[in-house]
Predict the structure.
Amino acid sequence: MIVVAGIPGERPTELLIEALDEIGANYRCFDQRRHEATGLSLAISNDVGGGAIGGELVIDGERMALSDITAVFLRIMDDNLLPDIATLPPGDPRRSRCRQLHETFLRWTDISPGRVLNRPTDMASNQSKPYQAHVIREIGFSIPETLITNDPDAARDFIETVWNTGGRVIYKSISGVRSVVQTLRTDDLKRLDRIRWCPTQFQRYVAGTDIRVHVVGHSVFAARIESEATDYRYAARQSGADAVLSPTELDTTTRARCIALAERLRLPLSGIDLREMPSGDHACFEVNPSPAYSYYQDRTGHPIAAAIARYLAGESD
Amino acid sequence: MIVILCHPFDEAALWLCHQFRLLGLDVEPVAVEALVYSRKIVHRLGDLGDTGEIHLSDGRVLRPESIRGLINRVCFLPLAHIERATPGDRTYASEELNAFLLAWLDSVAGPVINPAQPLSLDGGAFPSPTLFHLAAVAGLPTEGWRSDARPGDPALAVPRATQDVVVFDSRTFGPLIPRGLQAGCRQLALLLGVPLLQITFRHSDDRGWLFHAAHGLADFRVGGRPLAAAIATTFRRRAAAA
């Protein structure tokens, strides 16, 4: 039995459900928006040498032993933001029950012996880009020259050094908070004193072409992205034209590094952001543990959802 | 230089600092608050590694590439300096600071005990289901765990004797416990991937000592001077090897 957890109408989850139907997989959906129709109990037994994981998941009255669930796909939104929960006061019993349900579910997926895309604890590496960059560097990818500082003078020195060598500087969040990558402009220097309140991340812009790689187990799908924008996800806003995506092949070394990176971060499903530099080498920016792969599948035709379905069904490594 | 990064109220860390000095180690206690509130944080990343400096208000400067060992006791992220910010700005700044501190702790050249993890800056906080499952896998007798148990349950309310031991580098320190439990404690630390782990047992009338809790933020005093000496030895060996 496979469990798909999230919002079924959301595009990545919707595509996966279609793919699971196509292979005739046995699955159930834990629809977060229908949390009141879902129940979960979890028990760790006290047997020495085992610590068996027991309990059951109940969806619309159907009871499933956790031991019968062989795989889980997680694309969970913050349960505090669910429409029927967001308006409730903090101590409301319905809010508490919903939180408890999600917390128990996530803790179970951390220790479930089955295949999980991806385990919550392992997904957390994306909460710090420089922390992830250490792993990226160890794997052999180049990382952008970066300065994190709350000192305006240090920031100014870095910016001038980059500008004086003909480069561009971009700034973006350090954490996993979604932020639009921006190119630093001369006008921005007037606001530099504001970084005193919080360290800010500056990077030397890496010239080249964006490559988005999705790793599913040992399957690799690479998309080449042509865009004039600093952040292609916001290309229409930043450059007035949408990004153009096309399937591409990675060289053997880069492909192997992508798989090694996903394995090292224990993220069997990952979205890896690369940039192919003029030298032919690749810089790596980050690894997304819950990639919105549908954007890429819809534009390149890559069968990513099918690969995820096969992985969950145990039909591929 | 060995750094003990701790909060000002962390008596166990200050005790360890004293022991390290008695053992002749070059050790500096640094308050987490002093690091986070620093007016000059400069950290660089590149293909060749991390460098940088954090200027503390007392004039000391921390350079991650120069730290030969670090005792990580970051229980929480101090945020007093941004408490007047709007809620949205405060949330954003706290996530940014957390992300930076995680990366900074990971950039220290020498061994870090315990290394920070994305979900716990102290590197030693684990969810109860994970702990009870792995404790049993490690061969420790446990009380078991249920998601529907409540703190007010009569079974949990009965006061029972407890016993704490500390595992460091695959050795147990503290009160003498049966060999079988010692082996289980060492195995649990391995399964959790932490060099330092404090384990609490509760006594049961019918089953003896049962695993009750574990965390990486150990009270070094439980392990006493032998534990302090073992940690000091580890730092010395790693420094010599480097």
User: Anything to note?
Assistant: Chain B touches chain A through 50 residues (CB under 8 Å). Residues 41 and 233 of chain B are 31 Å apart (CA to CA). Chain B has a mean pLDDT of 93.
